[in-house]
């Protein structure tokens, strides 16, 4: 495994990406072992569901990080923050727990490495399908093949995804989703992190989300950017640990600019 240092050479990103993949290799059989079984579901303080699969996966990944990179920080959905140096591993053991507990196969595991607050490595792993998008500075790969977003440049031609309309609970966010849905060529629901992989591979053009936490979106940034897309908050600002959870991902800079301009009246 690579040795952490404040100044990471470009050639080291693949080593960190390999380690992120190793974390997902640990997570995948655990997730599949619990998937579509009768397992208890607890409610967290925010009323979101959590299972033994979420907790077991994160505990295993944290132990691996602490063994290989003891100075690194960790930011996980289930067990919170471990302070460290400028490297922070961001973990979502089961992204799409509602999908997971209802037998829907497009849940995922998200792993990111942020350096000085910026996500540089991102992995979207989909255990049930065996797909894994790996984003590093400058490229995104799926099964070893470089991925590229679609060349859609205008809202009128865009294919829009969001995980669920249920999160758009305010008049502004619900209005934004309704208005954008009426403008684009097609709207679809569902998929959690999987829809960002679809965007990176050119199958959809826009993703609009609200209420996300850093463990939900940090891994998505390198995947989308490495494939040529753009992902920011609704104001067009880069995503980071202080972002408020409104996320827009677009296939091209032109489409992103069109979407940001469209969203201005809803912010």
Keywords:
single chain; 267 residues; alpha+beta; Fructose-1,6-Bisphosphatase, Chain A, domain 1; D-Maltodextrin-Binding Protein, domain 2; 2 domains; eight-stranded mixed beta sheet; five-stranded mixed beta sheet; 8 helices; 15 strands; 26% strand; disordered N terminus; magnesium; hydrolase
Provide a descriptive summary of the structure in words.
The chain is α+β, with helices and mostly antiparallel strands and 267 residues long. α5 (194-200) runs parallel beside α7 (220-226). The model is unreliable at 1-11 (pLDDT under 50). The radius of gyration is 18 Å and the shape is globular. 32% of the residues lie in helices and 26% in strands. A hairpin with a 2-residue loop joins β8 (131-136) and β9. The longest helix is centred in the first third of the chain and has 22 residues, at 13-34. Strands 4-3-5-6-7-8-9-10 form an eight-stranded mixed β-sheet, sandwiched between helices. The protein has two domains: 10-146, Fructose-1,6-Bisphosphatase, subunit A, domain 1 (Fructose-1,6-Bisphosphatase, Chain A, domain 1, 2-Layer Sandwich), CATH 3.30.540.10; 155-266, D-Maltodextrin-Binding Protein, domain 2, CATH 3.40.190.80. The protein contains eight helices and 15 strands. The termini are far apart. InterPro entries: Inositol_monoP_metal-BS, Inositol_monoP_superfamily, Inositol_monophosphatase-like. Mg(2+) binds at residues 77, 92, 94-95, 216. Its cofactor is Mg(2+).
